[in-house]
Specification:
Number of strands: 0
Number of helices: 10
Oligomer: single chain
Order of helices and strands: HHHHHHHHHH
Helix content: over 70%
């Protein structure tokens, strides 16, 4: 399903929508079914330095439907805290969701760039793919650089991000 959405968004070259698609994909990959009951478990896991639990807790608080007890601002602050810890614990998905949060919600392209690069450095294929997209299109503070775009697409492809293989061939 995500591949179909992503293909449509790439055709339109709408980077803001691509960022949101990455957030959705990252959240979907976490399987947050039953999250309301599991948030205490995610938080405890994060406190025990389990990176994926930090990412799940961050995703929980970034999801509007689960913020009933927090204001949007409080939920965002809590989400960023958990995602930052996930990234520190070397979870590339947490880094990428954090990058998308800084781009889409806070409009902070400098921090977003840092976390996208960190996601790729941690060999998270989707993070490398996002770097490729940024360099190919020159968006969110990135300069157009087709050589770098091709490099990151190739790395993402090797890491299993299937669309990147097609993007690399298209450059």
């Amino acid at each position: 399903m995500f591949d179909i959405i992503k293909a449509h968004l790439i055709k339109r070259k709408t980077m803001k929508k691509i960022v949101l698609a990455v957030v959705v994909a990252g959240l979907c990959s976490l399987n947050l079914a039953g999250a309301d009951e599991d948030i205490a478990k995610f938080e405890a896991g994060c406190n025990a330095s389990i990176a994926t639990d930090c990412t799940r807790a961050g995703a929980y608080y970034s999801d509007k439907s689960s913020r009933s007890k927090n204001t949007d601002k409080q939920a965002r602050e809590i989400s960023v805290k958990f995602l930052d810890k996930a990234c520190e614990l070397k979870d590339g998905n947490g880094c990428l969701i954090l990058a998308a949060t800084y781009e889409a919600i806070f409009g902070d392209n400098k921090k977003a760039k840092f976390y996208i690069e960190k996601s790729c450095d941690l060999d998270y294929g989707s993070g490398c793919e996002m770097l490729g997209l940024r360099y190919e299109n020159g968006t969110y503070g990135f300069e157009v650089d087709k050589k770098k775009a091709k490099y990151f697409y190739k790395k993402a492809c090797k890491l299993g991000a299937k669309w990147s293989c097609k993007y690399e061939q298209a450059l």
